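Researcher: Structure prediction, please.
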Amino acid sequence: MLKHLLSHLNTTLYLQIWPDKIVLRNLTNNAVLEDEAVLVVDNSQAKARIVGFGHAARQKAAAHHTVISPFSHPRTLLSNFSHAETLFKLAVQAIYPKGFLKSPPFLIIHPMANTEGGLTQIERRCLRELTLCAGAKDMMLYQGEVLSAERFDLAELKRAHPNWRDD
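Model: Predicted structure follows.
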């Protein structure tokens, strides 16, 4: 019982980002969200309203809806900060809903495309801000082999990447 309670207090989420999709995995319980990296926006009112995200929202999109991909840019992974922030929030809420005794998760961000030559300081800062705005208590920007829940050890990962806060 204590182990179950502690797992809710120390949840690690692992987010892989491509221009066209995201994969968010809860490394504590291995729950996975894999979906298109799109937001659907309703433009029929004076103020635009987010209808949803991912494939299901795209399928239900109406004529007055706009489909936006916040990670679709020819040179960088991030093309629109505010839409990426909304997508991060919705994805985190989908796989790790807020609840009693749930602390904010630790989020590992793994950019999977448009990283040739490394990420700029601006890109690293934007990804950090996005994760904190999405409700994470802290984050690690990770570039390397794909992580798996079966052989995941956050302490070991931090030891292997001593500058994980500055990555």
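Model: The chain has one domain: 2-35+74-160.
Researcher: Thanks, that helps.
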